Amino acid sequence: MIPNAVKQGVDLPEAASWRDVMQRIATDVASPNSDLADRTATFPAQTFEALRCSGMLGLMVPKSLGGQELGLRKIADLCAVLAGACGASGMVYAMHQIKLSSLVAHGMQTEYHRALMRDVVAKQLLIASSTTEAGIGGDMRISNCAIEMTGDRVSLIKQASVLSYATEADIIMATARRGPASAGSDQVLIALRRSDYQLQRTAEWNTLGMRATCSEGFLLTATAGADQIFPKPFHEIAVQSMLATAHVLWSSVWFGIATDALSRAHASVRATARRMPSDFAGPLPGAARLAEATAKLQTFKSTLVAHIERFETAKHDEDDLSSINFAIEMNNLKVMASNMAVDIVREALMVTGIAGYRNDGPFSVGRHLRDVLSAPLMVANDRILANTAGLVVAGRFDSCLE
């Protein structure tokens, strides 16, 4: 269905006001529905209907194909705003944008992928990702399944151990070996429309947090055109766009969760101050801890912004984009951001005390804590640090401040 805002030709906002649009959706739709979506582990359908009707799913697409061509920093900010209201909604929006970034970066040379981008804008299509697979231990750079080619048609059967919001998506971008005789690391990426595939649920999603992402397991069976495969090998797509974008936008989601948790802690301290007698002269309970957590949040923001700028610079130099040092920096962002987010939300809980521990009330941060605890686990920090260790040994230590 084409969203009303797009179908009726309603003037959409200028780039500077997209944040205002997202803030309204976050406040009016995502926040009121967040607890129910979390409690029942159901997809936040109302939030994404509002996003579609406001034209928010195709903002990264080039203007030549009908989009707004928003840069990564603006998209990251939108992810943070939405995540502050509902962490799962922010994560789904971020995962959509991660796949869209690969489509934009590597699909401009083929008519099929250009047409897909036009449809993402016009029909506000939601994109999901199938990069994980049963039997490979969470390593998305290896595939067991393979593309089978018959003339100009291809087929694929994939045991997707985790496929977030699969039944709600309009497009699934899946990885597979190039062919049955290919090595596990010789992968391609294919963009599948809903009419190209069938899904059979194989695993439920009953988790501590991020419950409304609906990251269930599925058997994915697809038949599609050969032109739906991206020309570049998946290895290059991952290195040049997907991994860095994922680390930036995931970090933005965690920043949004941490920011909202800390804002609740701030409100809690102010409420305590208002209840204090006018002649109270002692230290305000929680204020010192709030100040320390605020400093951590400021460091988090500075780190995230610096890495976004680093990525934007690297995009103009393919050698830099594919370099060991760049990979190390982006891996470090994910590890630092996920750890800092957990620390900040935990500090917010200590400030709010029992009011924050409750699942109701204006100072509750229980959902924030449960959601943000997923951060060090997706992809596991231990796995990233092990990969980074090999890069550090092979690379050159950089101490330059310029």
> How many structural domains does the protein architecture include?
3
Question: Any idea what the shape is?
Answer: globular
In the predicted model, the low-confidence regions spanning at least 5 consecutive residues are 1-10
Roughly how much helix do the residues carry, as a percent range? 40-55%
* Number of H- or I-type helical stretches: 13
The CATH architecture classification of the largest domain is: Up-down Bundle
Order of helices and strands: HHHHHHEEEEEEEHHHHHHH
What is the CATH H-level superfamily of the largest domain? Butyryl-CoA Dehydrogenase, subunit A, domain 3
What fraction strand?
5-15%
Give an account of the 3D structure.
- This protein has 402 residues and is an alpha+beta fold.
- The protein folds into three domains: 16-126, Butyryl-Coa Dehydrogenase, subunit A, domain 1, CATH 1.10.540.10; 129-228, Butyryl-CoA Dehydrogenase, subunit A, domain 2, CATH 2.40.110.10; 234-274 and 286-394, Butyryl-CoA Dehydrogenase, subunit A, domain 3.
- Helix content is 52%, strand content 13%.
- The protein has helices at 4-7, 18-40, 45-53, 72-85, 87-106, 111-123, 234-275, 287-314, 318-321, 324-352, 354-357, 366-372, 381-394, and strands spanning 127-130, 148-150, 153-164, 171-177, 187-193, 197-203, 215-225.
- Strands 2-3-7-6 form a four-stranded antiparallel β-sheet, with no helix packed on it. Strands 1-4-5 form a three-stranded mixed β-sheet, with helices on one face.
- A hairpin with a 2-residue loop joins strand 2 (148-150) and strand 3.
- Helix 4 (72-85) packs antiparallel against helix 5.
- The chain starts with a helix and ends in an 8-residue tail after the last helix.
